[in-house]
């Protein structure tokens, strides 16, 4: 059974002459234990796809299901609860609280979710991302790459069933990018997670179980990343 499913999903913005079709009749499914890469040029619909997958906005037509539940049939409160307890977001903008230290970013997750994970698990996440010594620093004291890794760690710390990541390695060098993708791959396969990464970064494709591309709002799976397909995909990273 699919954990996440799009059935004939389209998304339009604007009206009349200014109408723009961001997603065009998308059919897509993701299972547990999968790390999925979604690539495409800027403006192709990748971020729209991700925000609809996480219930942050609704499709114009079609159905989105999480754990067989149709998101559009839920009340606003139920949708908020679903996002809080089920979905973890890693956004390009980091979304760190500016007046909280790195350690306090995680304490906030505990308060909001009323959870408490073991110190051992917490430290393991920090060490894997190389941020174990940043606990007392504020966001304005961090580099872009450090902010990105803290944002990733915070999403993982909440222990969601789904992780939806928008360009999670954009601020990272090749070494850190590989470490992050390896961690996401491990989480998907060892911790029964569904992880979808939207990116231009084709350094990540070797760790992915599936690769999809979105072009002009249409999605298709890249079944075999041979030399010709790789050449086409490389275009997106430029």
TrEMBL record:
Record key words, sorted: ATP-binding, Nucleotide-binding, Transport
Source domain of life: Bacteria
Signal peptide positions on this chain: none
ABC transporter domain span: 4-235
The keyword Transport is assigned to this record: yes
SMART domains to which the protein is assigned, alphabetical: AAA
Coiled-coil residue spans: none
Pfam family, one: ABC_tran
Family: Belongs to the ABC transporter superfamily.
PANTHER family named in the record: CELL DIVISION ATP-BINDING PROTEIN FTSE, LIPOPROTEIN-RELEASING SYSTEM ATP-BINDING PROTEIN LOLD
Record protein name field: ABC transporter ATP-binding protein
Protein's organism: Leuconostoc litchii
